[in-house]
């Protein structure tokens, strides 16, 4: 009986923690500017391709929230859900195969680089600082752990496939 009680409490804590994490990621996404507006307003932009089911994306959420707070007014943060068909063209254009994928745009709306996967907060902060100073982005050859994405259809939903990779980093052509 005691074990059952402990298991029930642990289950409630895990579910509650996950719901808080989802709210954080969703809140960042809802608070972000539309992509076209962010790329045309004269500020550097960091775009993250993410999914609600992506554990790595949830691990990056506190870092993204901190970046948003640290660079308010100087950096636009845009989160694009890979399960939304609206972003299908961007997924293909930038060959997004693993998430999170980060794109770094300068103030003119030109891609300066990309990074894929779980990045240490200090690396992502250094990349953003360089972007804001219009300097070369450091750490572009690093790739962290990713969650794979597959081809989603509205009827089937999305399931993580066996692929767990992303393009090595560089500036898209």
Q: Which SSEs are present, and which pair or pack?
A:
Layout: H1 2-31, H2 35-40, E1 45-50, H3 55-70, E2 76-81, H4 88-93, E3 98-99, E4 101-105, E5 111-116, H5 121-132, E6 147-148
Parallel strand pairs: 1-2
Antiparallel strand pairs: 1-4, 3-6, 4-5
Helix pairs in contact: 1-3
Widest beta sheet: strand line-up: 2-1-4-5
**What is the helix tally?**
5
Q: What coarse outline follows from CA principal-axis ratios?
A: globular
Order of helices and strands: HHEHEHEEEHE
Poorly predicted tracts of residues: 16-22, 152-173
What percent of residues adopt helix (DSSP H or I)?
Answer: 40-55%
The amount of beta strand, in percent, is 15-25%
Q: From the structure provided, what is the oligomeric state, counting identical versus distinct chains?
A: single chain
N-C termini distance: 61 Å
What does this 3D model show about the protein?
The chain has 173 residues and is an alpha+beta fold. Helix content is 40%, strand content 16%. It is built from five helices and six strands. The strands form two sheets. It has a four-stranded mixed sheet. Strands 3-6 form a two-stranded antiparallel ribbon. Strand 4 and strand 5 form a beta hairpin. The longest helix is centred in the first third of the chain and has 30 residues. It starts with a helix and ends in a 25-residue tail after the last strand. 29% of the residues are buried.
């Amino acid at each position: 009986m005691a074990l059952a009680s402990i298991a029930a409490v642990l289950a409630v804590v895990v579910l509650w923690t996950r719901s808080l994490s989802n709210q954080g990621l969703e809140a960042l996404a809802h608070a972000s500017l539309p992509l076209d507006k962010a790329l045309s307003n004269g500020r550097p932009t960091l775009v993250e391709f993410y999914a609600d089911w992506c554990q790595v994306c949830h691990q990056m959420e506190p870092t993204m929230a901190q970046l948003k707070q640290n660079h308010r007014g100087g950096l636009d943060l845009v989160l694009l859900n890979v399960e939304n068909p609206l972003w299908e063209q961007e997924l293909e254009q930038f060959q997004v195969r693993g998430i999170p994928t980060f794109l770094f745009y300068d103030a003119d709306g030109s891609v300066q680089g990309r990074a894929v996967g779980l990045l240490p907060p200090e690396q992502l902060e250094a990349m953003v600082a360089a972007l804001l100073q219009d300097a070369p982005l450091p750490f572009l050859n690093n790739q962290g752990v990713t969650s794979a994405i597959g081809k989603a259809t509205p009827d089937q939903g999305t399931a993580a496939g066996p692929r767990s990779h992303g393009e090595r980093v560089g500036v898209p052509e």
